[in-house]
Specification:
This protein has 267 residues and is an alpha/beta fold. Helices cover 46% and strands 17% of the residues. A 6-stranded mixed sheet has the order 1-2-3-5-7-10, sandwiched between helices. A hairpin with a 7-residue loop joins strand 1 and strand 2 (23-29). It starts with 8 loop residues before the first strand and ends in a 10-residue tail after the last helix. The structure holds 4-(N,N-dimethylamino)cinnamoyl-COA (DAK). 4-(N,N-dimethylamino)cinnamoyl-COA (DAK) binds at residues 34-35, 37, 73-78, 88, 93-94, 97, 114, 116-118, 140-141, 144, 149-150.
Amino acid sequence: MTMTTYENILTAKEAVPGLAGINIGVVTLNRPKALNALCHDLMNELVDALTDFDKDDSIRVIVLTGSERAFAAGADIKEMSDETTVSIMSKDRFATWDRIRNIKKPIIAAISGYALGGGCELTMMCDIIIASESAQFGQPEISIGVIPGAGGTQRLTRAVGKYRAMELILTGRPFTANEALEMGLVNKVVPTELFLDEAKSMAYQISQKSPLALQLAKEAVLKSYDGTLSEGLQFERKNFYMLFSSEDQKEGMKAFIEKRKATFTGK
Ligand code: DAK
């Protein structure tokens, strides 16, 4: 696949050590002058890059990151300030966000610095969150007269519970990586110089697994967000059954019995 050149992001395919022909896809938000504020062009590029990686059979896991100073300081306030209800609705800017929601491969967020507003919401659309100890999260929209619009009221509440989410969204106060860890919003906090390496190392670990099983597991976990427990259990069961017609299931179980490492092909 030829790599597209983007203006607001960087993309890279990096080989998974010890797994011939398998890569991770790394997307780096790269609009440093605006602390990676999520302008429309950046969002369009991000979605295109994620979609390309999602389609690339050599990639099993995607890592999404920013700089040490900022993952993203929010949606671009300068682009948004003159919008009206009618203008913002007619542009349907959420279409790009919906496409991120439909990415099938696991996305690991490697977060350092500011992850505010839309930056925090984008983080929460990822599947695993590794934070540097200098990461700063927050939903400060209330301070500029609006509310989180890209899923913050829903995903933050599911991650940390009603009372904490309510406080964070109503005060808009930033919170540290360690507070996020304690509330269950991030998986791991590591020294700043290690946040990206840690995320990649987890991506390598997950890349060892069957891509089919990864996709169906992600889909089933996300389903638990949506409906009732019964619907979620049924959905999980259907995906579980489906995996028994894959070669990866046969290979994975056979390899265990034969005490060797499985080789997964995604078939
Ligand atoms: N938008 C645009 N520019 C931003 C920005 C932002 N969110 N955040 C920072 N910048 C720009 C600053 O304007 C400044 O640009 P220049 O003045 O140099 O041209 C540059 O980045 C450096 O920022 P500061 O000079 O402010 O740097 P400091 O270190 O002093 O402060 C800060 C860093 C992160 C504390 C501060 O920049 C800040 O408070 N930024 C705003 C944080 C914020 O309120 N974020 C939430 C925005 S609302 C939607 C989807 C999502 C959303 C809405 C709609 N649809 C699909 C429709 C989400 C909404 C939001 O995220």
